Structure formats: structure tokens, C-alpha cells
Amino acid sequence: MLRKLYDWVFSLARSKHATPAMAVVSFTESSFFPIPPDVMLGPMVLARPDRAYYYATVCTVASVLGAILGYAIGYFLTDVGMMILTWLGKADTFEASKALFQQHGAWVILIKGLTPIPFKLITIASGIFQFNFALFLALCALTRAGRFFLVAFVLKTWGPVVLEMVEKRLALWTFIGLGVLLAAFLAVRFI
């Protein structure tokens, strides 16, 4: 079963619809969707290393555009933004987050924009707290480009070796990946 899923992901990564699908995932992840674009970017770079930086560019542009939507949700549709934050389990930390944003907003965006923490938390909160939009946009572009180009570089450079290791021990790497995802989910939920 794992082999079929693995083969399906790589066939999707090679399909003509992969780039638009990745752009949609990247856009929506910045505003409301829970799945990060890395789940598509990684296999796409591994399938076509020659297009690694093109894929990183598409991911970055779509993510920044999605960040604008997330900001708008927080700014203009605060109730919807709070509903999304509640769904993500972050509404109870609203006051602490507000104080943190008021003191260190730029650093919050820079640090969290580079991590696997769902970016929508940052974009919606930035809108709710009415963070300076021009600075928000610049920081989003910087952090998202940094993250996606780093992923593209690492996978283009060392991907084939890693891919060979993964293919030899697919079940082991699947469990490791699930463990990392679970740890990231728990970190986001309780941090």
C-alpha cells in the first residue's frame, strides 16, 4: 500500500497539473488550508531537479498572494479569522499573541514564516492586529522565499541520494515522516 501511495505522489509530481496544484496548495495554506505546500514541492523537485527553483518561485509567489488573503481575513473579517484561529486551537492565546505582536511583530513573522508552523496563523493574526501591511508583505516574501528556495536547494543537491535511501526503506521513512508530522502538529497545537 505504501508503495502505491508513494508511486502515486511521484506520478502526480510529474503530471502536467502538478505546478498549478502546488500553487493552489501554497496559496490556500497561507490563509486557511492546513496542508503545507512542502508535501508537493518536495516530490516535484525530486521528480524534476532541473525545475527546482522554478517550483520554489511558484510556491513563493502563491504563498505571498495567499498571505494577502490571510491578512485580509484577519483585517476585514475578524470574526472569520477568529473562527479559523479557534479551529486551529489558537484563539485562547489571543491576548498573549497580541502583546507579542505589538512588541516583536516583525520577528514573529520572520521566525514563524520559516518554520513548518501553519503560516495562516501569522497572516490572519497580522491582519487582526493591524500589523503594518507593507512590512508584512516584505517579511512574507523574504521568509517564504527563504523557506521554499532552501527546500529546493537541499532536494536538488542531495535529493537523489536521499530518494534512493527512502526507496530502499519506504516503510521506515514513512513512519519517521509521520512522527515528524505528529510532532509538528502537537507543537503547533500546544505552543
UniProtKB/TrEMBL annotation:
The keyword Transmembrane belongs to this UniProt entry's keyword annotation: yes
Residues of the VTT domain: 55-155
PANTHER family xrefs: ALKALINE PHOSPHATASE LIKE PROTEIN, DEDA FAMILY PROTEIN
Protein's UniProt name: YqaA family protein
Pfam families: VTT_dom
Keyword Nucleotide-binding: no
Keywords noted in UniProt: Membrane, Transmembrane, Transmembrane helix
Origin superkingdom: Bacteria
Species of the source: Brevundimonas kwangchunensis
Residues that span the membrane, as ranges: 52-77, 172-190
